[in-house]
Amino acid sequence: MPRYTQKNMTWFDESTPQNAAKASATIGSGENGVVTVEYDFVGTDGNDYTITVAEGSGNDVDLSATLSGTDITVTLGTDGVGALDATKNTATLVAGAIDALTDLTATASGTGETALSAAEAEQDFTGGQLATPSGSPCFIIISGTWYICEEPVSLYDESGWKSATPTTV
Description:
Layout: E1 22-28, E2 34-42, E3 50-55, E4 64-68, E5 71-76, H1 91-99, E6 104-108, E7 120-124, E8 138-142, E9 145-149, E10 161-164
Parallel strand pairs: 3-5
Antiparallel strand pairs: 1-2, 2-6, 3-7, 4-5, 8-9, 9-10
């Protein structure tokens, strides 16, 4: 039987247990103008997605969102003279256009009434991760933080691990 003598050795890859999470990215700005786009599934696959905002070219262009592989392009709508049309490009409308795409969910911040008003460079989705699996309930302490799972945790579990940091009163 092997003997482990290395201090601070963990039995999982991460430095602390983690829950599974979905990858996401944001576009727009302001209290009522940010659109958060989330890949619908937990894990690292969503980290492959990107999103770009482009200005529509031409008169009376409709707002649109397209998905090509893992690349999302939002094309902002224009008015009758080819200028960006704030009424076509509110965060709520942009979120709706993206939400219609496969495997993606988009939400607008606040009232969603602020328009996206300019092109935005390509952004990567981030934050997608798998959970630290555990075959049975467990309790571990790492650097003063308590990590608890009350039942087995799978790679796709979004809430299996709970943590607490006790304090002295």
